[in-house]
Amino acid sequence: MSTGWQFAELTDGSFEGLNHAGIETFAGRPYANLAREIIQNSIDARADKKSPVEVHFSKISISSQDFPDRAFLQKHIKSLLKQAEELKDEKAVAFFERANNAIKKQKIQCLKISDRNTRGLEGPCELGKPFHSLMKSEGFSQKYQKDSGGSFGIGKSAPFVLSAIRTVFVSTRYAERSRKVDLVQGKSILVSLWKDRGKVCFSNIGYYGHKEGAQPLSSTKKDTLPQFAQRSKAEGVGTTLLIMGFDPGPHWEDSISASIIANYFDALVNGDLRATVEGREIPTQPSVLRTWFSKQKLKDSADKEDWLTDFNLAESLALCTARKDKLTSVQSSEINGLGECEIRILVVDGLPRKVGVVRNGMLITTALHGAVQFSGVKEFIALVRCKSPRGKELLSSREKSDNNEFKHAGREEGKKKKEERREGKKLAKFIRDQIKRVALQETEDESELDELAQYFDITDHELTDQAQKEGDLNSSIVVRSRPTPIRKVNMPEIRFITGSDVERGGRSGAGGASGEAPQDKEPTQRDQAEQQQLVDIRAIHDGPREKRILFTPVESAKVKVGVLAIGADETTTLAVESARHGGRNLKVRGYEIGLIELRAGERCRLDIVLKEAFAGPLLPMASKSSKI
After folding, report:
1. Which tens digits make up the pLDDT trace of 197-229?
2. DSSP secondary structure, 73-93, as one string
3. What does the alpha-carbon distance between residue 20 and residue 334 come to, in Å, rounded to a whole number?
4. How many CB atoms lie under 10 A from the CB of residue 528?
């Protein structure tokens, strides 16, 4: 049985151009879509529920001699280039010129994506089997379970966007009774080829493998599998995808990393996913993951593909995952038809009043119908999980290919669709009820100054004057006024600096003591894990050097504290002369105050005296430490 590339001959005279619907769907955000779709398939095929699915992204190169039947495919691409020139199709000409240049190189660049702890793509390559669904089915998707994603099957097109020759190879190993079976097949999605004015036509889709029936190479047939596509013993059962002619843009690793943390923060933190990109492991520890959301390179990558807003929203949603503190409300309920549903609500000033829905650890939507807009409630973020198979099935059936919103029932208002619609309304009602219960805005006539002053249109100086008139800064001060929008400050990444750093012109945060621009230094995982999150921050000027700082810690920890001066052009750490907390003096060492025992959700107040007068905005930063 001969092997090689096979583009089926057509007899109906049909023609498929370059604008393949599936590929065009993902062309706008190639890296973001690739990571999302690939990892979704891997998680849905998870083998051992007690261990995480592993997905590894790496760039490799293969010799042109190792590219299976390269001569035929190169000749076919040249024929398509000539056809495009004759048709004066400028877009196709540009594509096939690029494809021809890519395939004739001595070294072919590839993006290799390999997973572990999955069941692989079960074969053989016949209708109803997952391998056939991935490689040959259109408008049909075969999954291992009803609550798996990808119900449209269109995600299989995402890898082709990043191939200069629109060609991928799939290698899978799966268990069949008492043996392991390997399948390998290549697929190209190009353009139909007409010869002799349409008397002979060839499909736009070609397959590498056995030419008869366009079947994959199989270990059960003792076929010789391409060396570069074989799965190693260490990789075991699972699937490897190879994007041929990979032409990466700058910082492609950051683009994929951004997509992984934005779409799969829930799976990462809960131990359901482990991922690496070019050998760099994506963090799973919540505190470290938060620092990755702050990385400017990742934000720039998301912005380049025009999804920075979604990235920033995912950063807020990630705050809800696996939290156990006084600031987070967790409520589970049995909903008729959906089973157990859980909602996690974090109420903190500055959050966007949004609800994210996750399925199998993946963020599905932030636009669940009936749970999009909320008024009359405090600022919050909420994360919803349907834990039962039926609930997950509903999420899967409602998922749209663009992944930005959920569908209502389709045009076919059958019994099942109407039932899904009713269940979707129940889920939306559960979400609304819980948010009202936790975050309903209450109007109070009187409030303590240090807790609610930030909501009123009174300056820090006015508040201080009023406090001094009362004769006691600790006394209760009644404030009656109208609520105003909260002023938000972007929190910079910083490290504490010492006097010797200043002498050397060292930096802190967005700018240094010398006023130099910051360098993009990547902090170590240990440094990232030590930084503590503070919310509800309030800084009050009691004098030129005397300051009162209030905040609420998100986590309990023993910390040292630094005070930042937030300027328009730079952010510097201020030297402190003395500090008090809870009626006792604190140890001060240059720029560091400590140690302070913080308790999650409990208000903390620091009274400090700076070494030099300062009248601008202040921001406290806390870092976990055992000594100062």
Report:
1. 767 899 999 999 999 999 999 999 889 999 999
2. HHHHHHHHHHHHHHHT-HHHH
3. 43
4. 20
Distance CA 422, CA 444 (A): 38
Q: Which helix (H) or strand (E) holds 261?
A: helix 252-269
Stated pTM of the model: 0.70
Considering only CA atoms, which of 509, 588, 606 is closest in space to residue 551? 606
Name the pLDDT band for 143 (thresholds 50, 70, 90).
low
CA distance 379 to 377: 7
Q: pLDDT digit string (tens) for 294-303?
A: 999 999 999 9
Contact between residue 509 and residue 564 where contact means Cβ atoms under 8 Å apart: yes
DSSP-assigned letter for residue 449: H
Enter the DSSP assignment of 215: B
Angle between helices 70-87 and 90-103 (to 10 degrees): 160
Task: Name, in order, each residue with C-beta under 8 angstroms of 108's C-beta and a sequence gap of 6 or more.
Answer: 61, 62, 63, 64, 67, 102, 244, 245
Between CA 342 and CA 421 the distance in angstroms is 19
DSSP-derived 3-state class of residue 243: strand
Phi-psi label, residue 94: left if phi above 0, alpha if psi -120 to 50, beta otherwise: alpha
Over residues 64-94, the pLDDT tens digits come to 999 999 999 999 999 999 999 999 999 999 9
Q: Which of 100-109, 320-329, 497-506, 520-529 has the highest mean pLDDT?
A: 100-109
Interstrand relation of 592-598 and 534-541 (parallel, antiparallel or unpaired): unpaired
pLDDT at site 399: 57
- Cis peptide leading into residue 595 (ω within 30°): yes
pLDDT tens digits along 586-615: 999 888 998 999 998 889 999 999 998 887
215's CB contacts (< 8 A; 6+ apart) are: 125, 185, 209
